[in-house]
Amino acid sequence: MNGFELIPIDWSQAGWTIAVAAVSSASCAILGCYLVLRRMSLLGDAISHAILPGIAAAFWLGGTTSTLPMFIGAVVAGLLTALFTEAVQSTGNVPEDASMGVVYTSLFALGVVMIARLASGRVDLDPDCVLYGRIEQVVLANVRIGGVSVPTAFLPPLATLAATLLFVAVFWKELKLASFDPALATAMGLSAAIVHYLLMAMVAVVSVSAFNVAGSPLVVAMLIVPAAAAHLLTDRFGVMLLLSVAIALIAAALGYLCAVWLNTVVAGMLAAVLGAEFALAACFAPRHGLVSRTWRRLNLSMRIVAEDIIAIVYRAEERQHASAVGEGARQTLGADWSVCSQASGGGWIARLALWRLQRGGSVVRTGDGLVHLTDEGRRAAQSLVRSHRLWEAYLGEHFDLPLDHLHEPAERVEHYIGPKLQERLASELARPDIDPHGKEIPPE
Length: 444
Description:
This protein is mainly α. It has 19 helices and five strands. A hairpin with a 4-residue loop joins strand 4 and strand 5. Helix 14 crosses helix 17. The chain is elongated. The protein starts with 10 loop residues before the first helix and ends in a 17-residue tail after the last helix.
């Protein structure tokens, strides 16, 4: 087959398949929030890989694919991963991330070897099943519950989700305290180590329950990506939990549908959709998104340039007014736009700032190339120049700085000095009406 082929969807099977993926993804997303907040994302990756030898050992020793031995083996391997990581870090004097890399790659490799050489000859377990998942086959085996035919593969993830919710509900305060302030938790008598190992055990359980969906390598995407995307969207932990679950559910549905339509691997498509959701959050999150941060910086740059422009025009008017003679002289006051543009940095930001000033009614640009302040613009410029000269006077009076070292810091700070700080600066000056250069400080 060349390229992708659109495949029609069998909705009778798609519902249960999506349900299995959604329930598994929700469990991973909930615990992933704690991993992200505790800066332990790599440990989640380590556990999702390192539990593989525990599963293989359970299959090999028990000779069965039943759920209980699989979970026990996964939990034991997960706890051993956490213990080995700390042991390598403390005894080997290596960084935490390096110890995780050593432990989980070694255990993962051991698990692959065990599955390929030991388990595959005795039970129905193969590397593809564990490494890539088998969610496409969840509807092949069913059990009737209350007259409804339910896939047997749906029951373990559902039980895992219930256990995850119960775990979070019972240890809500402990998990929250240990995640945000482990030192305070220890000082209050809470064993942060016990909470840590309980969390690692639950991560191991949800990781193995998600094998049918994504396989061992891509479980980390289900654990970390929804939580990381939700963390970009909110700073409130409860909202973060809900958003991470919502992101995981959307990825489960879209990932399966896109995989069926394009006739590709479900696990890979689910992780790809999660990556796309994270990219959208990274770009458009209201506070931490790339677009919002760029927009705020652009607005700040334009505000500073606009304030520089009106300050330049105000100073030009001061000079012209001081030397003007006659009543009609004030009608010609203003500053040449080329001078304003050059002094404020020039370029498209200066032109855009001038457009915003004109639209806001702060300045008027005439056909002769002069920029004039309106009454509203003059008030804003007067406050800005007042902030500038008050700061110069404060630096000159309280710090032993030469006169030529006062203008540059005042030019930076003037954009952030409000009326209250102006009043405070004026109250601490011996001469609040004259700056160190002998220029009049505009009144409040």
